[in-house]
Specification:
Nucleoside Triphosphate Pyrophosphohydrolase; alpha+beta; three-stranded antiparallel beta sheet; 8 strands; 143 residues; five-stranded mixed beta sheet
Length: 143
């Protein structure tokens, strides 16, 4: 039996110089809890890696952008159960961040990436955001 572990997911709500926010969506063939939904860039914290460094690394890997971390957001968790069995336990640790540079280019498991205004986020993309990403934007006071 595979040992279940708690995942520490790190990421960022990234704002560009025009006040837009970055969203990414995994490639369709990638399975998982976030499949098909728009999310903020991020990934798993590696053993021995510090949180801020992990966020910067994950964003660079997924988008080829350089960022500056600004404000830490309140961590939260997601526990998914099937019956009595816990199938997923994620602790999210995210920051607000500013885009410093680079050319947006989706990579690895990210199939799409786009910048959206606050108005587009609410009016057009909100239903397509993963519910944990919706919660993140609410915690940040953006939505």
């Amino acid at each position: 039996m595979k040992e279940k572990t708690i995942i520490v997911a790190v990421g960022a709500i990234i704002k560009d110089s025009q006040g837009r926010f970055l969203l990414v969506r995994h490639k369709p063939e990638r399975e998982g809890y976030w499949k098909g939904k728009w999310i903020c860039p991020g990934g798993k914290l590696k053993l021995g890696e510090d949180i801020q460094g992990a966020i910067i690394r994950e964003v660079a890997e997924e988008t080829h952008l350089q960022i500056k971390l600004a404000t830490p957001l309140v961590p939260f968790e997601r526990i998914v159960k099937q019956g009595k069995e816990t199938v997923l336990h994620v602790i999210y640790i995210d920051y607000l961040a500013e885009c410093l540079g680079g050319e947006l280019q989706p990579d690895d498991d990210v199939g799409e990436a786009l910048w959206v205004t606050r108005e587009e986020l609410r009016a057009k993309y909100w239903p397509e955001l993963h519910e944990d990403t919706q919660r993140l934007f609410k915690l940040a006071g953006i939505a």
